Amino acid sequence: MRLHNESDRVKREVLARVARALFAEKPEALDRIPLQMRPKGQPFSRCCLYKDRAALRYRVMAALGFRGEDETDELRPLAAYAAAVPTRTRNPEPFISILTEGCSACLESQTTVTNLCRSCLARPCVGNCPKQAVHVKNGRAEIDRERCVNCGLCAKACAFHAIVQVPLACADACPVDAVGKTADGLVAIDHGKCIRCGRCQAACPFGAIMACSQMADVILKIKRGRRVIALPAPALAGIFPNDPAKLTGALLKLGFAAVYDVAAGADETARREAAELTERLRAGAAFMTTSCCPAWAETVRRHLPGLAGYVSHTPSPMRLAAEMARADHPDAVLVFIGPCAAKRTEATFYGDPDHVLTAEELGAMLIAADIDVDACDPAAPTRAGSRAGLRFAVSGGVAAAVGAHLPDSGAPKPYVISGLSPKTIRLLATFAKTGKAPGQLVEVMCCEGGCAAGPCSFEEPARAAARITAQAAG
Question: Which one of 3.40.190.10, 3.40.50.720, 3.30.70.20, 1.20.1440.80 gives the CATH number of domain 110-166?
């Protein structure tokens, strides 16, 4: 399983315990979660048992959809937060919350010399440094911090692996330099730069970056008899190892009134983007980029405004699937489910669907409700997508689906960018500056490998992608 570590195990256990308390309609049980997970006499992971419990309390708050930064009364029971869930009219945005009690105030990313240095005759660390930041003193290499640019060339050159690059996991994972530090060394996020991709949350080994969940809203609406409709993303077919028909059956057993595959929305997105691309090229445009990835859309809005005119105007598969469900059920509560963090921001910005659940949160709900997916009766969704729509979850799938709607003769050349990084963002900036791109249809996915590699998954990305590819091939 992807990210199989203690931090993720704790996060998922909190989600499952919160879901269980809400399904059982026992909100008072929420206040006991920190004590049950860290009882007296058992090992703890931080400086003391009580700091562990404090951190768990804030995790429960996040699972209920509340940011710890906004708390004004530390004595307020967690049950009181649960009681406030039905009264909120807007999903938390920004949905990212910092657990200061969990942050370890890690050192800035740096290249450092270890005691393995042998002061060898070759000294490739000195010769390969482009900034002359490395020198040998008292029989050991040293790095001048003022000159070092952390390029890592000295580390690559060292035959003894005596020089290492020590990362700042959360900041290094961010493709847009939105993660930094406060004056006291704790993690801080610049929400004006943040593209909501969720990578920092997935990368932090201390679990200090959390997401405010909408799981409680969904569970309570199901429990109160609202008609709640699931919109599962194509990526779920790879993340969950079960028969997709049985997963649909599990969603219905969980209390969802109907299931509309987002792959059906993907089919419509492909058709519309193909028509839009054809129209743009006829009008003299050099290229068009896809519009499906919300983190990519946020990147353009916040960092690459020069590319805004090249981004497709076609709504994403999530929004088009929501349109289909809304047309059939005007008063229903629509819930997208997938591995993407940024879908929360997209849904909040456009107002539909009503809520977004992650694959991890769906897994927690199934555990809390004691539902074995493999034991569920298979069921068909109300609206199902095609195999091409299913492939939207893997890199290259969007371009392939759009291309299938274009004529074989003179079909536009696609160009795929699989994963946003400082390097690929600089490349995209050149497209905006020059008005040229290597292809006429540029597919951009924030997550390397596509949505199947989303940060809110619990499956290893390559395995998820392989399942999706196999199902799409029939």
Answer: 3.30.70.20
pTM to 2 decimals?
A: 0.90
Q: Whose structure tokens read 């048992």? A: 49
pLDDT digits (tens, 9 = 90+) for 230-255: 999 999 999 999 999 999 999 999 99
**Burial (CB count within 10 angstroms: exposed 0-12, middle 13-18, buried 19+), residue 381:** buried
Pairwise CA distance, residues 272 & 397, whole Å: 15
Q: What are 99's two structure tokens?
A: 């657990």
Cβ distance 221 to 194 under 8 Å? Answer: no
- Residues with Cβ within 8 Å of 53's Cβ and at least 6 positions away in sequence, in order, are 34, 35, 38
CA 228, 247, 334 angle in degrees (round to 5)? Answer: 20
Please name every residue paired with 112 in a beta bridge, in sequence order, or none if there are none: 164
Nearest to 170 by CA among 112, 102, 114: 102
From residue 289, alpha-carbon distances to 1, 307, 446 in Å are 32, 9, 13
